[in-house]
């Protein structure tokens, strides 16, 4: 496999994310953000075609996550990142930069994509603005 | 490297007088290398007739893309399985569920079969295809998971001079149009890149495909786009729908050639697989020969054109 070819599980995950309206993105096994869907683009204010793939550092600088004070948080400090690296699903909330309000708190669920005993090929992360979908 | 098709039908055997020119047996391809060693790709019903030609072979290698019935149904009728002097090695996809042997044994066991794997007179070994490249003799083989239902592999086979890519069941355009995807997001791209011969799924016409999205197979335009994108030098369209008669398949072949030419390729570098089709390649250009059985090809196939050259 050449370095450019994505594992099948990432290809299939991208196909799924392309078809749904839940904001979602994909990271590969090295933590590089390799795709986000149109729903995420609308939320973030920037299409994936425009943004392209981003390393974890580039993603951090562009979108966060941010502390309550609006300062970037190290990715390794987020439970989601740690969980994905360990091959376990995780859920968390944090602030990110968005197109609408500057920053917004989101709830995010991460699912590692594991297809072989050699470990995770990456992760699929879906997120929701806090409060969306809540009733009462 | 020489390739011979023993079965090109998909899904289920499709015998009948209206199927004779392309044949009704399911997936099986024989590959013979320059040192005369051989590999068999898939064990659909075509492997039964192939096995009759292997009366003297003591060692037989079979690589399976996946375990759908149209790719393993012939195993139980493969004559070398019933010879005590035969040593058969079967490679196939791994699964988190259970071993390759256990999964194949679901078919070769009661009530589906009168014999069990352990009762076969031959010596048979089951090997799960490694995720990385491996060698059988001097032949390099690479397997990668490809888009189909269930664990399914495509194979890239290289003998040092030429490269064959075999992806008989594949739906690379599932969920996204191929034309809009980057190379790295196309299932099977690396396997097929610059292959001298690409054997690829082309089960549906473009009119049929929309009703079969997600079934794991390709429509013609997607197949041709995939072959074009990877730069395949010669293309053998494979896994014919069991409902497609000779007349229908010949019509599809004409459409495929027309579109292939529009994409900038030579007419003779693409054809539909027929039982008995032989392709020898690795030197200058593929030499294609259609044998007489079971398909007595008619019309103006590339196989006929090239077979008259020598």
Descriptive report:
The complex is a heterodimer of chains A (136) and B (310). Chain A is of the alpha+beta class and 136 residues long. Chain A has a single domain (12-129), classed as Beta-Lactamase (2-Layer Sandwich). Chain A has helices at 8-19, 38-44, 48-51, 56-63, 79-85, and strands spanning 24-28, 33-36, 90-98, 102-116, 119-129. In chain A, strand 3 (90-98) and strand 4 (102-116) form a beta hairpin. The radius of gyration of chain A is 14 Å and the shape is globular. The termini of chain A are far apart. The relative contact order of chain A is 0.19. The mean pLDDT of chain A is 82. Chain B contains seven helices and 15 strands. In chain B, helix 5 (220-230) packs across helix 6 (246-262). In chain B, strands 6-5-4-3-2-1-14-15 form an eight-stranded mixed sheet. Chain B has a seven-stranded mixed sheet with strand order 7-8-9-10-11-12-13, covered by helices on one side. Chain B is 18% helix and 24% strand. Residues 295-310 of chain B have low confidence and may be disordered. With 310 residues, chain B is an alpha/beta fold. The radius of gyration of chain B is 18 Å and the shape is globular. Chains A and B meet through helix 1 of A and strand 8 of B.
